[in-house]
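Supplementary Methods S3. Input chains for the assembly prediction are listed below.
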Amino acid sequence: MKNFGTLNVLKGITLTIEKGEVVSIVGPSGAGKTTLLQILGTLDKPDMGAVFYGDVNVNELKEKELAAFRNKNIGFVFQFHQLLPEFTALENVMLPTLIGSARPSDAEKKAKDILNFLGLSDRISHKPAELSGGEKQRVAVARALVNQPEVIFADEPSGSLDTKNKEELHQLFFDLRAEFHQTFVIVTHDEDLARLTDRTLYMTDGAVEISRGRRIKGKKPAAPVQLSLF
Ligand SMILES: Nc1ncnc2c1ncn2[C@@H]1O[C@H](COP(=O)(O)OP(=O)(O)OP(=O)(O)O)[C@@H](O)[C@H]1O
Ligand SMILES: [Mg+2]
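Predicted structure tokens for the full assembly:
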């Protein structure tokens, strides 16, 4: 359960997300999608219930431990890139690695590698204002990926993009999953994207009503993300 004051925003939800799965969350405005994503992504806590990454109950971690856990294991992509305007693309992408206390030269190499992979190698010294919308969003994806987190959460990542950039970004998620076996949980209003994902969770009024698609078959994954809200 999750309340904001007297408003019951999330009801009972039980959810397991397998490693390597691409899951979409859809539903009307105000259904609780962002709140659910923030709880899954450890940016917010449930009032009743718990989130597990493998054996780790993230709600029991102290603030510092949680920050370190998040830096290592979780990446975020938001609707409006949220890049730091005074830093270049390269510097923005280096930040998560530097926060994880890597050497600057290592952080730079990792950032360049991922920017290169995303086709941005000739844009690394541009500041966000000097990038197109699609480029900004790809830099934001690079920032989310640079520490090779297990799980990437994206909240309407293509909401501010035109059709071409939107399709490219969507394809990128699947390319990244194929390349790095990462797990993606994507809140979207985009039906095309939802259809492409392995599983779609439909939310209304704080509950997951129905779910389309099947979980990936095969051997049991090492560390799924599990959510139990009461
Ligand atoms: N910090 C907050 N304080 C109080 N109420 C909040 C807070 N954040 C969200 N809410 C309320 O919780 C409900 C769910 O919000 P949430 O942002 O999760 O919806 P959403 O499904 O992401 O909607 P949208 O598609 O418009 O982004 C809404 O009614 C919203 O007004
Ligand atoms: Mg939202």
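The pocket of magnesium ion (ligand 2) is lined by residues 33-34, 155 (CB under 6 Å). Residues 87 and 127 are 6 Å apart (CA to CA).
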